[in-house]
Input
Amino acid sequence: MKSDAHHNGLLLLTFSAILGMATLATGAEPESSRLIAGIGSAQSLLEDMEYLVADLAGRQESFENNIFPNIDIFLIGVDQEHPIRFDMLFSAENGREIQAIIPVSDLGEFLNDNLDPIDIVPERDRKDRNLYELTGNVYEGWLRSLRDPDYAVIFTRKEWIPKDMEHPATLHKDLVEKGYGLFAHVVHDPEKMDARSTAFDAMRTSTIESIQKRTDETQNAHELRQAWLNEQLAIFQQWFVECSKFTVGTDLDRNTDVLGATLEFSAIPGTPLADNIARISDQASYFAAIQQPIDAVLTARVHLAHDQRTADGLVELYKKSQVVAEEQIDEDQNASDAEKVARKESSKLLNDVLIRSTEMTLLDAMIDVVPSGDHHVLILGVRCIGQDSIQAIVDKLPEAIEGWTVENGVADVGGTKITKVGLGKNVPQALIDLYGESVASTYVAASDEAFWLAFGENAVEELSQRIEAAQSAENLARDGTVLSAKAKATPLVETLNGLLNDEASIFSPAFNRQQERLENRISQREEDEVGTGRQAASAFLTFEWISKVVEAMKGEDDTITIQLKNTSENTLTGEAQTHRAILKAMGTMIANFADENLQ
Output
């Protein structure tokens, strides 16, 4: 069991992270958007957690001694049978804010034994007996008590939680009836698009400005990190602002050991986003003729359209990436001057391919990892522009990396020539285990509209079959698929674990440097009033989980499936399933983290 001080630290951390996200601004402008987000109930969360940790992972003591107490301490005065929500409210004036909506079983206990011990001090308003002002070092705002059912609504301004406010239960009633364990839902007014965009702009700007320069990075590298995040937020902004309706929910079936999720997304008619969704069905994927294999370790198809704004943003991002790439090449003390020259030239050629490919305004790609011989073979295809630059990059590989070789024209598929690239002697054992000794040779090709890559047993044959299928296809199916993926997680996680722990792997040094930088940044932070709570949160960022779940997954159903399609005008629907091995791994990971960091 934890000490009261430790429990209070965790409580303080949570309220600081969630309630503290709200902007402390004034004004009574109604929100331009409300994203409803929450859990079905505290009781269902506890039951699901016990199922994952105790039943599947076999870690009953971890659940009883470390996990349950650290959840239960948050539930003083909380009704455990009703949904708990932390809604995101967006407005043009105040940007993004968080509204906590907590079901209460005993308001007095919740105020005095849950909030007050972590320095959120409640005081009843003299003119409104159901309104409380919250003060203290953690959070300042207001709490509105509602009846039938009993809820506490917490927000920074009392104007937005008036006496006659609509009961929040009306907004999640349908989501609860669907049995969702976790849910998010939004319905947008098309007339408030400009207000939503302004609100998101404010959040995006503040988020980008908060990205601090690291002591171990150049100014260009810092600006690149900001640019990457800015572009990601810009894409998310379009999907949020131009969304008409969005619903996602999860359901954990303990009888079948399956965690399922469903999604429905509709764009506002006439928006660029609606046009992009329409293009998915109007234009077939270049890889549509290549059937997804049933016995794959991994198979995925992605076909996603975007507009010119996104293309322009990617161009600027690629330009910044080129500058940083050249800096990193110069810093490589293991590369010769000749290798550095070749790498810079190759980097410029790759950048040319990326920039020219933005003209397509879409992402169209496929990957298959399938059994072949005694091992496996990987085949990757990406639609692109700039095949001449791709071939030039391949030809420069022996100059760029000592020990690598290139043999052009090892096969010809309807005029598309396949090139063999020898990777030298230091091939990671993890790749050999999955793909066989032949993984030391990679095969690449640039066909009329795509870049192709394959390695593993029978790579040339498997690659040739797919190139021929794509090039000779006619009357391609237009089924509206955005994403179709299926994976067997165990061999993929085993390979990833091997790559991260193999000094011969190019991934291991990069991963170790990233972990070291993260640990250094965390150790440099001064411990503040959050104390052990912050230490626990920081520990999660550096937690080595991969190696600890591999054994838990073996011998169980490790299938993951994802489907996302354009099913009607302006609308995408999707579903996903993860099976027992993944759930067992989740339980193992949670138990290990709790045992090491929450005692």
